Amino acid sequence: MVLFLGFTELQDMLSSIYWLVTMLGSLLFSLVFSGLMLIVSMRDAMATLRDERNHDMLTRVLNRRGFWELADPLARDRKAQPLSIVVADLDHFKRVNDNWGHEYGDGVLKAVAEVIQASVRGTDLVARFGGEEFVLLLTHADIETAQRVAQRIRAGAVEIIAPLPDGQRVTLSMGVVVSPFGSDLREALMRADQQLYKAKELGRDQVVVHGPGDVAAAA
User: Fold this and answer.
1) Which pLDDT value is given to residue 39?
2) Which tens digit of pLDDT belongs to each residue from 12-34?
3) What's the confidence (pLDDT) of residue 41?
4) What are the tens digits of pLDDT across the range 24-67?
5) Which residue has the higher pLDDT, 9 or 204?
6) Nearest Cα to 125, choosing from 57, 72, 174, 76?
7) In sequence order, what are the residues at sequence separation of 6 or more whose Cβ sits closer than 8 angstroms to the Cβ of residue 141?
8) Nearest C-alpha neighbor of 192 from the set 129, 106, 140
9) What whole-number distance in Å separates Cα of residue 112 and Cα of residue 153?
């Protein structure tokens, strides 16, 4: 039937088919592009929500949930060994809130978080477990290395953070333990808490280390 069409009619038909194909191609491209953009937007939104869910809103360090989400895989990773846990707690923090208000106390917590983050590496985890307690998981850190990090944080809090309105310095008590590969990380955290309590009992503003031989020493 095409043989009986004139040149103009044939040209119009071909032009119409070309236009239709072009429009369909453009529509398909737009749909694919829009779909990809939607996927990227959803991925970014999910990442933002996950970040907000796993971080403490005040200090922007990890919260308890975010810590365990990252800590458990590290505990099973031989390349991250040895692991050590440091538990840090602000001394007499209730007095800060009672005397100068929670807003001032929030500023102190943020300053402490900044000191801690500046004292560790990118592979380490820093979390606020609630109130004035912070937990660190140090990778590639034996007990001596962890002790040095803890002392650096303790000294940094005293030296860097501005004195309180009454002239007292912000101090930290800290407990340190090593977590052997294959051991229960939560049990290690409990032992670090025990060392923290010893630091409080010994007068605060110090680091207590729990070594492999189950010997605690004030540092």
Assistant:
1) 73
2) 655 667 666 776 777 777 777 77
3) 65
4) 777 777 777 777 777 766 665 565 566 678 999 999 999 999 99
5) 204
6) 72
7) 82, 83, 84, 124, 149
8) 129
9) 9
Q: Are 141 and 149 in contact (CB under 8 A)?
A: yes
Triad 101, 105, 107: Cα angle to 5°: 125
- Nearest partner of 177 among 205, 204, 217, 206, judged by Cα: 217
Q: How confident is the model at residue 112 (pLDDT cuts 50, 70, 90)?
A: very high
b/e map 191-219, b = 16+ CB within 10 Å: bbbebbebbeeeeebbbbbbeeeeebeee
Catalytic residues: 132
Q: Which residues pair with 97 in a beta bridge?
A: none
Dig out the tokens for 163 from the structure: 């004195």
Q: Is the pLDDT of residue 82 over 60?
A: yes
Q: How many CB atoms lie within 10 A of CB 114?
A: 16
Q: Are 112 and 170 in contact (CB under 8 A)?
A: yes
CA–CA separation, 123 vs 115, rounded Å? 16
| Residue the block writes with tokens 């953070």 | 161
